[in-house]
Amino acid sequence: MFYNDFKMQQQMATLTKERDNLAQSRDAYRKCFDTANLILSEIKSKVQEAERKEALLKAELKKEQIELPQINIIPYVDSLLENKISEQIEIKNQPRRTCAIASYPKGSHEVLGKVAHLAQIEDNKAAKVISWHLGSDMDCVVTLTTAAARRIFDETQGRQQVLPLDSIYKKNLPDWNRPLPHLQNGRNCFDPVGNPVFARDLLTFPEHQESCRTVFGLLLRDTIIVDNLDAANHYRKEIVKIAYCPTLLTREGDRILSNGKFGGFQNKAPAMDQLRGMVFGAPLPQYYYNLSKQIELIQQYRTAVVRLNKANEELEAREQSLNSPKEQKKKKELAEIERNLKSIEKKIGMTPTDRCRKSPLQPEVLDMNDSPIPPKRPRREILKICTAQKNGSHLLSQRDGSKPQLTSEINGSSGKKKT
User: Fold this and answer.
1) CA geometry: angle at 137 spanning 131 and 143, to 5°?
2) How far does CA 323 lie from the centroid of its chain?
3) What is the per-residue pLDDT for 391?
4) Would you say 124 and 272 are in contact if contact means Cβ atoms under 8 Å apart?
């Protein structure tokens, strides 16, 4: 009997050790496969993101009237990009109006530059008359602080005009969103002629937009430009009936001051060449900026396509790796390990859900409910009852003068008479 128990314990120990080794191998394989699946999922997410970015940029290019082929995308995009860049360079190198005033060196971020360099005007006629109207202000250096203006004043021994923006009373500056004076409550008070427009609305600012709005709001105020002198006189005559009329300039070079005075040499702009370069430069044409936007989109699209191709190649390589004979062999090995582990667990009475089931290799445990001897707690209760009966019989015998006798039956046997 003891020999059989010992042999059974040895078998149980061997099976348990083999089960533990198989479980470790199974966990290692599963961890390897889980890591591979996680990497595959990340690559798929990368591909989806690259596809979304590529589709978004393709739609933006379609809005710019740029169609793309379905195949050989990279060579086509490279050729398109080269053509767009060449066209942009050609436009930039075309002759256009420039300001001949020498720029002031910006030794500090507090120096914005000369007025003539802060804005550009596309229309030649408007550029001529506005530049002439501003006159000597074109050469004024604009600074953010009075300290910077004072430093320039000292460096040039007072010969350079300066305008510090921190000394401007800004509440008197015009509202750039205010409509022309002939527009009252959203409707025309009269039908203007000559295409009136605020002079400040013809300016474009390459940089420092907010500061430039302050500068030219101060210098131009509500000056209006119309086509010719007749249109200017008509506009002024109608405006003064309802409101104050600001200075009027014409594209032909005439000026009507805010007090109504016009004519004379001082109110007529000279020819462009007589301004000696003191004129606002012309901005690059809008097509140049459209090309810049297209070039940027094409470059972004090319990057997105390269990234998408790379992600697809990585995904394909990963899927091929997971389907390789080596990986298939690992899967078979894992399946074999799981079958062996299940067989061993069945032998030792264990399952993944119930590992405490009886096994034929385990010794049978005796159920205490089948024992002829009652458990301790019931035996104690029976002894208590017997003691109580004994005490009761003893008291009764003393009254009757007879000897006490107790007969009890415990576990099916007759008790002995006690004296």
Assistant:
1) 125
2) 36
3) 53
4) yes
The angle at the Cα of 376, spanning 371 to 378, to the nearest 5 degrees, equals 90
Handedness of CA 232, 235, 241, 243 (dihedral sign): negative
What φ, ψ does residue 111 adopt, rounded to 5°? -105, 115
Q: Is pLDDT of 134 > 90?
A: yes
Confidence bin at 380 (pLDDT 50/70/90): low
Give the span between the Cα atoms of 124 and 280, in whole angstroms.
9
Under 8 Å between Cβ of 80 and 298: yes
3-state SS assignment for residue 53: helix
Instruction: List phi, psi (to 5°) of 324.
Output: -70, 160
Better pLDDT: 235 or 385: 235
The span from the CA of 138 to the CA of 118, in Å, is 10
Per-residue pLDDT band for 405 (boundaries 50, 70, 90) equals very low
Least confident among 188-192, 312-316, 399-403 = 399-403
- For 172-184, the DSSP string reads GSPPTTPPPTTEE
Residue among 149, 138, 140 nearest 110 (CA): 149
Residues 149/248, Cβ–Cβ less than 8 Å: no
Residue 216: Cβ-neighbour burial (10 angstroms; 0-12, 13-18, 19+): buried
The beta strands (E) that lie in 182-241 are given as: 183-184, 187-188, 197-198, 203-204, 224-226
Contact in structure between 128 and 269 (CB atoms under 8 Å): yes
pLDDT at 366 (0 to 100): 42
Q: How far apart are CA 272 and CA 252, in angstroms?
A: 12
Tokens for 232, please give them.
């200017």
Nearest to 238 by CA among 171, 291, 184, 191: 191
325-345 residues labelled b (16+ CB within 10 A) or e (exposed): eeeeeeeeebeebbeebeebb
pLDDT of residue 371: 45
Assess contact for 138 and 118: CB atoms under 8 A. no
Tell me how far apart the alpha carbons of residues 419 and 13 are, in angstroms, rounded to a whole number.
Answer: 61
